[in-house]
Fold this protein.
Amino acid sequence: MLEPEAVSAILRLSELGWGSKRISRELGISRNTVKEYLAAGGWTPYQQPERKKALDGLETWLRDRLRRHRGNADVLRQELAIEKAIAVSLRTVERAVKPYRQELEAEARATVRFETPPGKQMQIDFGERLVEIGGAKLRVYLFVATLGYSRRSHIRAFRNERQESWFDGLESAFTKFGGVTEEVLFDNPRALVVEHDAATRTVVFNEKLKAFAKHWGFVPRACAPYRARTKGKIENGIGYVKRNAIAGRSFPSWEVFEAHLEAWAREVADVRVHGTTGEAPIERFRRAEATALKSIAGIPPFHAARELIRRVQLCGRDRRQRLLGAVAADK
């Protein structure tokens, strides 16, 4: 790219009748460069040619997936490789989704936390974390249940996120809290939700979940798709467990890890002053929420409850009807 003075010299020589070849020789500039500036009629700033980017045309897909995965760009990078056969670095994905991440942050700041009365709601979710147990890094699935009013939490560690783990986590939460809330709010895990239409808000729950909820007497609720912030209490709770209870720690065995989580919930999470309520969760629980929960006294675990269905063969039923008819005739 030439300086403006050099371009002015080309134009002056051209006005004197010099040809591009002669100007080129005189100024020591390539002939093509002389021709370009003559055609442009003067000096123009250099413009970087627009290069096609690997993620061009995927803006809508990236925005939707970022919302679905709660801002996790690394999950997007993995799905790009699997679904779109596009291999890019995490930094490339982060640059592409930066405006969408800013949208999520702005929405989170604008969201007014929905408070619930005592005994009304419990929020549940799973979070993943690599934990060193017995000298090896294991992927642990952390079940966290948080009472909406008092913010008291219950934490369980599982080796998977199957339906049985959801149910075991819930039942242990009911036992710890000594009762059941009116409703339980969760995201849209496949283990619990068959279908959730984002437009109509129609939810189809898993049949076993409906039986489980009926057994314990609560109403299941699912967040609107891609709007997990509506259960922000549990989102913050999972992050708190990861940062405070687990970060930087290792455990000799799974049993020691479970005991640590139980002690941490009792000695740290329950007694610290909560940033939103201004009270310790255990004090707020004892003062107002413990008595608002529905009692679970006398209710057996869900897996122990069995429906007994008696199957009667047709011939047996006909014989019974004939016997009844004979008895009636004798009378």
